[in-house]
Model the fold of this input.
Amino acid sequence: MKLLQEEDSESNPQIRRTNQLIEVHRKREEVFSNTQLFQDKMKMMFDKRTKPADFHIGDLVLKWNAHFEDKGKNGNLFYLWVNPYKKFSFKGKNAYLLESSDNELTVGGPVNGRFLKPYFQ
Done:
């Protein structure tokens, strides 16, 4: 309804189109800011529930074996957590390079911290 009233008030189609584009741009910025607020709120709620990992370089950890994650691919005796690895170095915010027991870096590059859990002897 608002656009119809604006069309009647403006006689020049170029001015009318310019006004419409300005209004669309303003609405887009408003939606973008609302989306950012929502994402920040959801991140804050998620971060409230997560616990930071207390991993240090040299700790022994178990790595999640995603190959057997799908239902039916793992038998009764297969473990989803494999080999104790030693933390070798940090690679980013929550990524780690792992070292196997024979002092070789693991194949596949860095591993996300959520796929690791502490190994207790």
